[in-house]
Amino acid sequence: MPQTLQFDQTHEVRDLVRNTLARNPHFNGRDLRVDFDQHDVIIRGAVKSYYQKQIAQESVRRITGIGAIRNELEVVSA
Questions:
Q1: In this structure, is residue 12 part of a structural domain?
Q2: Within-domain flag for 46
Q3: DSSP states of 55-73 as a string?
Q4: Over the chain, what is the mean pLDDT?
Q5: Quick one: residue 53, left, alpha or beta (phi over 0 = left, psi -120 to 50 = alpha)?
Q6: What is the CATH number of the domain that holds 58?
Q7: Could you give the CA distance from residue 19 to residue 7 in angstroms, rounded to a whole number?
Q8: Which of 22, 31, 41, 68 is the most exposed place for a label (fewest CB within 10 A)?
Q9: What distance in Å separates the CA atoms of residue 10 and residue 16, rounded to the nearest whole number?
Q10: Residue 38, SS3?
Q11: C-alpha distances in angstroms, 71 versus 1, 6, 31, 58?
Q12: Is 48 contained in some domain?
């Protein structure tokens, strides 16, 4: 019986999320971490404002293939 291979998109989606955040000029020099819990995305790290925190969440929201977004970014003053 031929073996059926199933394509796992987790790595592809993870790379897409990371690249989306890395390309955003609001996060230059920021160490943002992206983790997954099943299909949910967890964003961690520190940003300078609540605006940046929201921008991170909304830029990831547009990506197909993710479930909920847990925005655990911490707002710290510079």
A1: no
A2: yes
A3: HHHHHHHT-TT---EEEEE
A4: 86
A5: alpha
A6: 3.30.70
A7: 21
A8: 31
A9: 10
A10: coil
A11: 45, 30, 14, 10
A12: yes
Separation of first and last alpha carbons in the chain: 61
Total domains in the fold of the chain? 1
Say which amino acid occupies 56.
Answer: A
- Sole residue written with tokens 């031929």: 2
Residue 75 belongs to what domain range? 31-78
- Whether 9 maps to a domain, the answer reads no
d(CA 30, CA 38): 25
Q: Residue 35 CA to chain centroid, in angstroms?
A: 7
Confidence class of residue 71 from pLDDT cuts 50, 70 and 90? Answer: very high
Q: Is the pTM of this model over 0.70?
A: yes
pLDDT of residue 2: 53
